[in-house]
Each structure stands twice: as structure tokens, then as C-alpha cells.
Amino acid sequence: MDALYTAEALATGGGRDGGHIVTSDGRLDLTTAVPKDMGGNGEGTNPEQLFASGYAACFLGALQAVARGAKADVSDSSVGAKVSIGSNGEGGYQLAVTLEVVIPNLEHDQAQSLADQAHQVCPYSNATRGNIDVQVVVTDD
User: Fold this and answer.
1) Which residues touch 71 (CB under 8 Å, ≥6 apart)?
2) What is the rounded CA–CA span in Å between residue 25 and residue 27?
3) How far apart are CA 112 and CA 101, in angstroms?
4) Can you tell me the distance from the alpha carbon of 22 to that of 13, in angstroms, rounded to the nearest whole number?
5) What homologous superfamily is domain 47-139 in, according to CATH?
6) 97 and 86 in contact (C-beta within 8 Å)?
7) Structural domain boundaries in the chain
8) pLDDT tens, N- to C-terminus, the chain (141 residues)
9) Second CATH level (architecture) for the domain 1-45
10) Is 89 left (phi over 0), alpha (psi -120 to 50) or beta?
11) DSSP secondary structure of the chain
């Protein structure tokens, strides 16, 4: 791969529990905490929230790119990402993702087609394909 950009981040302290993350440019500077649902205090962000945010933004960018090629109107579109973490049954953990895509200016079938195409070009989708369950759901609202 010929890298176009490389992001750098450093995690210190308690990792996902009472840790701290910061990017090399200082734009992201956050405290981490285990979510309340997992027994923590929930008073910080967590890797799943960060992954969901990155995936949603990246997928929306991929959707806009494929829409440009198709000359389709995806203005006012949105992508929500739900990242779940759970036991893999072997002493470790695994992730699952649901992407909720809303494209208000298109009929459902065309919107689904664009979302499917975006799923093929999105770097996050390509990185996760075959590793975790990713569902792409096009909704009308």
C-alpha cells in the first residue's frame, strides 16, 4: 500500500479503564473509561465509541464518493454506526457493527445499491470484512 496519510495516537495509563489517549497533532485528547454496561464508571470514552465514530464518518465519505460517480443526490444523508462488544466464547472478545444509512432523497432500492457499493470501497469495511459481522441497513428515517 502507498500510504496517503498516517494517523498517530498514544494510549497511556489504564488503557480502556482510566487511561488517556492523544493524537500526535493533539486534536484528539481524551480520557478513557469502561462503559457502565460493562461494569465501569462510564466517565470517559471507550474504543468502541471511537471505532463507531470513525466507521460512520468513513462510510459516509465512501457513500458520497460512489454517489458522485452515479450522479445521485445524497445530500442530507447520514450514517450511524453501532459497535457492539461481547465474548467470543473462547476467553476473548469480539466486535459486531451495524451501519444505519439514511439517504432521504433516493428511493430505497437506489439507496441500498449505493450503500452496498460504499461498503465495497470504504476502508473500514475492507479492514473488517471477514473478521467481524457488519450489517448495512438502509432506513427511511
Assistant:
1) none
2) 6
3) 9
4) 12
5) K homology (KH) domain (3.30.300.20)
6) no
7) 1-45, 47-139
8) 899 999 999 999 999 999 999 999 999 999 999 999 999 999 999 999 999 999 999 999 999 999 999 999 999 999 999 999 999 999 999 999 999 999 999 999 999 999 999 999 999 999 999 999 999 999 987
9) Single Sheet (2.20)
10) left
11) ---S----EEEEETTTTTEEEEETTSS-EEEB---GGGTS---SB-HHHHHHHHHHHHHHHHHHHHHHHHT---TT-EEEEEEEEEE-SSSSEEEEEEEEEE-TTS-HHHHHHHHHHHHHH-HHHHHHTTTSEEEEEEE--
- Across the strands, what pairs with 13? 19
Residue 26 Ramachandran class (φ > 0 left, ψ -120 to 50 alpha, else beta)? left
